[in-house]
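Team,

Forwarding the record for the chain on the shared tracking sheet. I've put the sequence and predicted structure together so nobody has to dig through attachments.
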Amino acid sequence: MSKLATASINSFASTETRTDVPPDDPIFEIPSSEIQLVLKEAADLFNQAAELVRDAGILRGRELARMFTKASDSLKTTRSPTEKLMLVFAYIKQLLVRIRDALKTRLQEGGKVVQVCSKIMARAVQIVDYIKTITQDDPKRKEIALDSQQARILFSGASKEKVSRKETIRAMRRAEALWPALKCGHRPHDGRQTTRLIASVEELQDSPSIDYRDLWQRSDRCVSLRI
C-alpha cells in the first residue's frame, strides 16, 4: 500500500485569542520544534502499529486505506498541536483494539495463527537465513558484515529482481529488529554513507526462531502516516 497520509503541523494555532481556556489555567509554553518531535514520535508509533496489523492480516487493502485516509484528513483540518496529538493516539487505540479482538478470536477458534508477511519482512528473514548460513559454514569467522549492495545481490537471486536501495535498507533495519545482535549503520569513512549490518559472531549464537511454515509473502506495498 502506498503512503496514504500527510499532514502539516507548520501552523499550530490561530492568532485569535482563545476563549475556551479558563483565566486561572496556567499556561505552559513549549517550542514548536519540540511539539513537532512529539508528534513525529506519535506518528512513528502509529505506523508501527499499522504495519503490525497489516503483517498479521488483521487489516488489509481498502479497510486499512480508509483508516489512513480518515486519519490524514483529520490531521490536515486540525490546527491545534494538542488535538493533532490526541487524534494520533485515538487512531493508535483503534489499532490496539483490532489487535486485541483478533487475538481473542484466534484463541477462541483454537486454530493456528497464520502470519502474513510483507516483502520487507520476507527479505529481512532472507538476510537472517543468509547470516545464519555464513556463521555455520565458517565457524572461525570473528565478525559478520553485510552492506546494502551485497543485500541487493542477495535479494535478486535467480529471478534478477531489481530491489531499490530504499527497500533494501528497510529490510536490513527489519532484520536488525528480528535479530538484535545485528547492528545497522553506515560504513565508517564512507562518503556515500553505505548502510551495512555488522555483528560479532560470538553475539550471534542466539539466533531468532521463525516459523517458516506459516510465513508467506503477501505484498510489497507499505503503509505510513506522516506528520
